[in-house]
Amino acid sequence: MWEFDTCGDLYMEKAVNGFLTELFQKWTEKNICHEVTIVLFSRTYYEVNSLNEIPEAARSRMHVDYAGQVYEDFYRVVAQNVRSDDWRPFLTTVKKVVQRYEKDIQQHINKVPGMPKGITSKASQGNVLEAINMSMNVFDNHYINRNFDRTGQLVIVITPGAGVFEADRKLTDLTKQRIIDYGKSK
């Protein structure tokens, strides 16, 4: 989200100032009420050859991907189950959290003495499938104690880039199966 597109705009600006602003304006114009949860997610790769080079205090939260690279995933809940008639103040909150997100990650990394340098991945190498799977956990029991003032549940993933991702094959298959399963009525 901190990359520039071909027109010179940050992808973050396009998402918040463009897509979300227009979406919320349309909802207001059409008098539509939705419940919104926004979660920022990213992956940080560390410049190490193995987990043994990570300090002991941070090792338990690290993972190794299919290519053998050590990484850590980050998530920030911006809003959970928010409903509003006026989304403008909410957009201000989103902008503030998005602007602090990368700094907050660096502060988290720097809390552990001796941590190697961490580099935020490109969207294509990120944790989009993990984020999708976490969001689908809401659907596990969507039919139990259903709140009928909402007529459906939907996951929308906004990510910079071309929509092509490098992913573990097993996780890809699991995600595909979960999406198919939750698409069927229970």
UniProtKB/TrEMBL annotation:
User: Mind telling me which InterPro entries this protein's record contains?
Assistant: IML1 (IPR027244), IML1_N (IPR048255)
Q: List the GO cellular component terms.
A: GATOR1 complex; lysosomal membrane
> Which Pfam family would be a valid example here?
IML1
GO biological process annotation, one example: negative regulation of TORC1 signaling
Coiled-coil spans are none
All copies of domain Vacuolar membrane-associated protein Iml1 N-terminal, residue ranges:
1-183
Q: Which GO terms describe its molecular function?
A: GTPase activator activity
PANTHER family named in the record: DEP DOMAIN CONTAINING PROTEIN 5, GATOR COMPLEX PROTEIN DEPDC5
What is this protein identified as? Putative DEP domain-containing protein 5-like
Lineage of the organism: Eukaryota, Metazoa, Echinodermata, Eleutherozoa, Echinozoa
